[in-house]
Structure formats: structure tokens, C-alpha cells
Amino acid sequence: MVTITIETKKHKEVVDITEEINKFLEKQEKDSGLVFLFALHTTCALTTADLDPGTDLDMLDAFEVIIPKLKYRHPHDPSHVGNHIMSSMIGTFLILPFENKNLVLGTWQRVVLIEFDGPRNRSLKISVI
Amino acid sequence: MVTITIETKKHKEVVDITEEINKFLEKQEKDSGLVFLFALHTTCALTTADLDPGTDLDMLDAFEVIIPKLKYRHPHDPSHVGNHIMSSMIGTFLILPFENKNLVLGTWQRVVLIEFDGPRNRSLKISVI
Amino acid sequence: MVTITIETKKHKEVVDITEEINKFLEKQEKDSGLVFLFALHTTCALTTADLDPGTDLDMLDAFEVIIPKLKYRHPHDPSHVGNHIMSSMIGTFLILPFENKNLVLGTWQRVVLIEFDGPRNRSLKISVI
Fold first, then answer.
1. How close C128 gets to chain B, by Cα (Å)?
2. Are A74 and A81 in contact (CB under 8 A)?
3. What's the whole-model pTM score?
4. A103: Cβ–Cβ under 8 A, 6 or more apart, which residues?
5. Chain B residues near residue C42 by CB distance under 8 angstroms
6. Residue A33's CB: how many other CB atoms inside 10 A?
7. Which candidate, C45, B101, C29, C91, places its Cα nearest to that of A90?
8. Which of the residues A74, B19, B37, B100 has an alpha carbon 20 to 30 A from that of B125?
9. How many Å apart are CA C38 and CA C125, to the nearest integer?
10. Which of residues 24-43 of B touch A (CB under 8 A)?
11. What ipTM does the predicted assembly reach?
């Protein structure tokens, strides 16, 4: 199990991490199989996404509207609650297929880390299954 | 890693793919373990669901309301953005347990592909872990 | 593949199951690797979450608002539909990393079962990959 670090640059951001994972796969012994990713955080998420120009900002706008603006209890900072909820709803892990030391994805499909409370260094556990 | 194709029939649809996966498992050497599924697409999703009659349409109605109707940037077709977002939120992969070459599911639990932009042929990578 | 049972106490509840999984891992041969969890149900979900005091109730409040209140078709009990939808959106499985027979999680990260229709005994399939 290796830890890789993704440096996010903005408060909210969809970061394309596809090439980061491919770089990891190039160094592995196995040519094909499954790769596991896990974010050690509660205010970011991992998923796959279309990243046509502007779609990253579209997603963030939509998430902003989806999260209800309620009187939250969370003691640390009640305005964080929406970020925690999006992280729990989208999820913090991925399993992806690879062949020839490269991710197997759809034509428009990218692997993304969604930052809900950056900028930050995000630690991801990664391993080949 | 094998690719199976699911032919969806409608623009939006919840397709029960449980038996498709069981057919794949029947042909495998291993009797029990875990099976991995991954959709090579950005406008469909994979998950488990209750499929009591009408619940598929209930889910689609709910998703339609959940996605905010904003002025999206996506250059290709801004009306697609909601479909991409639901795919990213629900997720495009599954890991499921199987025993005796059959999926182990709850009484009411089915494996579904949620089509957000059909009808289409959807390609799923599938492999036993 | 082992089945563990989580007894939920309330109608809606976020249950911290981190220690339940660690107890399972302590009894395994492997010291490190990945652990798979799968809920055999359609009205609960598995994910990771921040559990600062009150955040569990914040999450449940937010989910209540996110689910549209529509005229659902579901024959059994239309008021259940929202619970099924949250289960399908959040997901019913997890893969988590472990080292030294303990889950590897972020500082604030816990493993949770979200109960949408309790109190109930919830069966989870669990196995080391």
C-alpha cells in the first residue's frame, strides 16, 4: 500500500487525477488487474466524471444547490457540514480496471478527486489488487 | 477482464442486470468470491436497488428533481450535465459477493444499471476478484 | 465470507461500525490488505463520514430535505421510496484498507452504516480481499 499526495489549489475544485494513477501503474509489476484508491479525508471525494470544459464548475454549482442550507449542529464549523455530506454521498474510494499498465476508461471518462474544502494536500492510499 | 454489453431501451431507465451477472458467474471457475463491475461511461451508473413495481420510475422522478436546473457551461449539450452529475454521484463501479456461482443479495436487492441518456449499448468491464 | 449483524436502535440513524470491523480484522490471518463490506439491504447504506458530535443528525436532516416529496408508485409503502433512493445513491458496499489488523482511516474518518428504516438487525457480508 502506497500513499500518493494530491495538492489541490482552490477551495472547491474537481481535480483530474487520471495521469497520477497511470504514473503509479507504470511502476507496478502487474500489467493488468484492478487498482484501489482511498482518500483519508472527510471533505473530499473520489469518483469518475466527464470533464468537457466547464463541466467541473457545473458539478460544483450543482452540489452547492443540492446541499440543504440548514441550521447544522456540527461544533467545529457548521458551514463544513455540506462538504462532509457530499464526501459521504459520493464516496471516498474507487476500484478501477487497468490493462497494459494503463487505466481502462470510457472515451470521456476521467478519474477525479472532488475537493470540497481546499486548498489542501490530500493523501490517497493506492494499491493493485 | 471481460466486457459485457447491456442494451438499454429508453432515454432514462433503471435496468435490472442481476441475471446478466449471474450468467457470467456460471461460466467462471471460482464458485465463490467477489465480482467487480465497471461502466465505461459518464451518463449511466451502477448500484443496488429495490425494484418493487414502479420503484424504478420513482427513482428516475426523484433524480430529475434532485438535479438543479442551472445555466450550465458544458459545451456539448448543457442539458446533459445533470446526467453526468448523477453518474458521478451514484458511481460507475460495483463489487458484489457471490457463492455457488450466484450473487449473494438481500431479499429485495437487485443489481441495476441506471441509464440517464439512452437508448444505448452500455459496455461493462466485469471480472472475478 | 462471514456475515456480521449490526443492530440499529432508531428509525433513522448513523451508526459508527469502525470498531466492529476492527474486531473482525483482529481475528484474520492477514495483517494488512483490503476489507470488503456489503449490506444485504435496500434501506440502509455504507460509507465513510465525519462524526463530530451532532454531524450524524445533521446528515440525516440534510438527506430528509434532499429526497423529493413526490407522489411515488412503490406499492408496499410509498413513504419508503426515499429510503430506497438514499440507499441506492450512497451505496451498499465499501472497500477499506487495513494495516496491523486495523483499518487505515483519516484522522476524522469513521466507517458508518446509515439506517433509513430501523430499528432493525442489519446483515453485512465481510471478507478480506
1. 10
2. yes
3. 0.97
4. A18, A21, A22, A25, A35, A96, A97, A111
5. 48-50, 106, 108-109
6. 16
7. C91
8. B100
9. 5
10. 36, 38-43
11. 0.95
